């Protein structure tokens, strides 16, 4: 008793089990209770694996394979994650029916060649290990999911293209510098994670894959290839923490829709193909054989030097490409000035030019996709006009370097519809442009402001027009809804109130009814000419006319 008290409670507790449990079959004084529990649970897990075919040895700090005394050859799923294994156990490579193998968070440095025995393996997770290379024979397995993230990989072998059934590939958090183009052969790949590597560029071959998720964040990528616009099944694209230049960072922040719009526009600008609004190639494809692209074939007796006027927009009798675009649109569509500017970004040479800043602003507008469809329809309309006009007798034909058109005029009779004459369309377009320019000049000179290039968008909310009415006659518009820093864009209801208040003020000030525009001319940007007439009539009112407002 003295000895027990001198050694503390430990001696007493030790003596008690020895006295009562000395006959226990598994008792060893050198093994504590936790080790005994671990050994029993390990035996139980191995016994369950024999019966169920699912081996779960996760989180047991194993350094060696413990199942040598058990027949586990029928195992279909094995989880040996969160241990201290330095290699894949050779016994595991003999599990022929194995379908899923999880070796996450171990100390494995290489993959043995015996793994090719697992010809039914579809899932392999060997992430958070010490792998420096992936062997070539690994990709001869029928893998559908391969996770090798958080290793020390510096490259991916070209043999990865043999994994035809691979649907998910995760090689994130490595040191990979180049992604092999053979990745483009993985025709079943749905998810690709190459996050946190050292990549400088993306292979164009990825554009042909049916990807639904692409993550290349935390790399050194500066450009998304324009061919990635063909990733039509892509639902999630993650590209943060990259020094992006194309698309610019402000577009990348807006999400997938704006990124793909940018890629489509870049393709239209860089490539000259029929799918990219290249009208000359369409003209060559659909024009009959008598028509050619040479000026001498149309005018054999004229000089077609640089000063001849062919293809120039100077002179009253010369037709520019902008005027031709308006001719086609006036026959079938009503194309606004904004749409013509959009065509210029697609390599059709029009009168208005845009720099990169203007391109970035246009990309932010939600209706660009619809405008692109309308332009594509214009191309089809141009082809239909060519085929229709070729059936008539031909005396004149004009060909432009970028837009091919044939408008025939009979020498004996006038066309049945005068609206199709080029002269009238040219004059109509010139008048519209002059009236829009006059509208801009009137507003800027009276209000001492500088309007943006898109006059229709600047007038759509009615704020500028209401200020103009108050400038002509103070307090003619009693209440004006204006944007604020918290709400930078007015709702459509407030825009309509501003426009209606402006039109009511014009009526009270004495603007004739036939000079008044309608609300939708302002709100929908479809009648800048009508708006210009209303503004001009308001400015032309005599000085004594506003004094009648109080009498009314």
From TrEMBL:
Residues 352-379 form a coiled coil. Transmembrane segments: none annotated. The keyword Cell membrane does not apply. Residues 429-542 form the Calponin-homology (CH) domain. It comes from the Eukaryota. CDD domains: CH_LRCH2 (cd21271). One of its GO terms (cellular component) is cytoplasm. The keyword Ribosomal protein does not apply. Keywords: Coiled coil, Leucine-rich repeat, Repeat. This is Calponin-homology (CH) domain-containing protein.
